[in-house]
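Fill in residues.
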């Protein structure tokens, strides 16, 4: 991944958050021990330039070391905007990316432990004011009060910033499969509750106990001074603890509420019919699992919709919906249907005299027009055979008016052909003509084929007869022929001309036909 000379913006934001949090915590801690809890620094000289310089130097040194360690951790992640490659080779990068907030928080805690050593032990030894009690009290306050609070703040604050980049880093990969440690929502909430409930009580209890012991044997002036100091310490700790608790609680609440808001918005989009939505996954806890599951669900719905739309290219939307809803039988059975055959006239000579590319383009344009006519009238194109079309009405979805729909489709096919020929004539191309044959009867309908490939097909004498009737257009010079069986089922028959009964191949009895002029 590309490395940049300057830290990317997201890393600079986290660096400023870490610097501000630690500096604020250090100043508050310094002020507390210097001006409020002075009993921990008994015998120490008044605040002077040397002590201030030591504070600045120690803090600057720790900040520099922390910055170097943080830069080394996130350097393999590049600019934090490019997606991490998938696969086992990049698994360590995905774990590293998810562990950024935890590493930065741990880095801060280590810094506070070192600060307790520098300030609670090294400085008193340098100034000759070392006492075991004072060192223990300062160490406890620096590490277990200020250090813990600042560490939790650093984790929550940097996590909030880093979550903005996780979707770009992981792309479509699942965060739960990264192998990084998981901080579950329950643990997060319980830890914050214990921190805010136990730590303030412990600090207040210790401050009160120290001052209560100091009251024994104190004179009147000292007694009053200790009480005033106790009130001041308790007030500062109470107000400060409340402010810190509100801030940390806000971060924790936001870490739960924000993903839920995104998830709710994405669910609303899906409810409104949008399947292009994707909810950002920003954690590897339970909320991340739920979000990943939602995205997989939407992906499945999207694939199903794509299949549905693709299926709609083969059948009409109404037929498609019936099949997908399970209301159309595809396993096979006897069906009363109307079959339509349509065949181009003079196709072979035209193909021989036309470039192959133009033949394919012309057939595709012609079939598009004819298929649209069949679909519009509730039919299903079963197959395109060379220049011939086979369509059925009344299957796979039963339709009592299948004969009327087949005739309406034939009429629309003829109208579309005329309009199409008008455009071809204007372009200087020859016109094409076709013949249509329609017959109604009983057929065996169902999915027929091999184990590898199947198609919805019709089997039976009625299919053969419909094809023969279509061929009779050449003999009669007609364009649309309808069998007597279909004519008798029409509920709204247009004016049609009865033709002499004819014998067709494969049938002993003559067949009555009607022409639509």
């Amino acid at each position: 991944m590309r490395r940049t000379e300057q830290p990317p913006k997201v890393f600079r934001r986290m660096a400023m958050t870490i610097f501000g949090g630690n500096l604020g915590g250090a100043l508050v801690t310094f002020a507390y021990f210097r001006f409020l809890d002075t009993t921990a620094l008994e015998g120490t000289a008044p605040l002077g330039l040397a002590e201030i310089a030591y504070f600045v130097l120690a803090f600057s040194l720790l900040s520099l070391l922390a910055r170097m360690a943080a830069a080394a951790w996130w350097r393999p992640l590049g600019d934090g905007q490019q997606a991490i490659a998938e696969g086992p080779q990049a698994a360590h990068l995905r774990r590293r990316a998810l562990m950024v907030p935890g590493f930065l928080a741990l880095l801060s805690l280590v810094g506070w432990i070192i600060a307790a050593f520098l300030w609670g032990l090294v400085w008193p030894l340098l100034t000759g004011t070392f006492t075991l009690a004072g060192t223990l009290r300062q160490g406890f306050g620096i590490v277990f009060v200020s250090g813990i609070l600042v560490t939790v703040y650093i984790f929550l604050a940097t996590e909030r910033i880093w979550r903005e980049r996780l979707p770009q880093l992981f792309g479509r990969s699942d965060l739960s499969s990264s192998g990084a440690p998981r901080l579950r929502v329950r643990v997060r909430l319980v830890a914050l509750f214990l921190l805010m409930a136990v730590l303030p009580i412990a600090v207040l209890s210790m401050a009160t106990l120290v001052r209560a012991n100091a009251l024994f044997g104190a004179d009147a002036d000292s007694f009053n001074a200790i009480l005033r100091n106790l009130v001041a310490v308790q007030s500062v700790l109470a107000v400060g603890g409340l402010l810190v608790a509100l801030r940390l609680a806000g971060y924790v609440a936001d870490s739960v509420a924000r993903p839920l808001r995104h998830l709710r918005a994405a669910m609303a989009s899906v409810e409104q019919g949008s399947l292009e939505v994707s909810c950002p996954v920003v954690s590897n806890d339970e909320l991340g699992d739920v979000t990943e599951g939602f995205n997989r669900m939407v992906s499945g719905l999207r694939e199903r919709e794509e299949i549905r739309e693709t299926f709609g290219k083969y059948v009409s939307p109404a037929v498609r919906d019936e099949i997908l809803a399970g209301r159309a039988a595809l396993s096979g059975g006897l069906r009363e249907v109307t079959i339509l055959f349509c065949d181009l006239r003079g196709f072979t000579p035209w193909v021989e005299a036309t470039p192959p590319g133009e033949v394919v383009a012309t057939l595709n344009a012609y079939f598009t027009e004819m298929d649209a006519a069949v679909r519009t009238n509730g039919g299903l194109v079963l197959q395109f055979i060379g220049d011939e079309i086979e369509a059925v009405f009344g299957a796979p979805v039963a339709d009592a008016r299948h004969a009327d729909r087949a005739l309406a489709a034939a009429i629309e096919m003829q109208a579309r052909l005329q309009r199409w020929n008008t455009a071809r004539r204007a372009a200087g191309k020859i016109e094409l003509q076709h013949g249509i044959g329609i017959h109604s009867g009983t057929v065996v309908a169902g999915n027929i084929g091999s184990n590898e490939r199947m198609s919805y097909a019709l089997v039976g004498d009625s299919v053969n007869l419909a094809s023969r009737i279509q061929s009779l257009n050449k003999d009669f010079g007609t364009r649309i022929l309808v069998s007597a069986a279909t004519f008798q089922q029409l509920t709204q028959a247009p004016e049609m001309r009865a033709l002499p009964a004819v014998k067709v191949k494969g049938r002993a009895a003559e067949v009555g036909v009607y022409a639509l002029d």
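DSSP finds 15 helices and eight strands in the chain.
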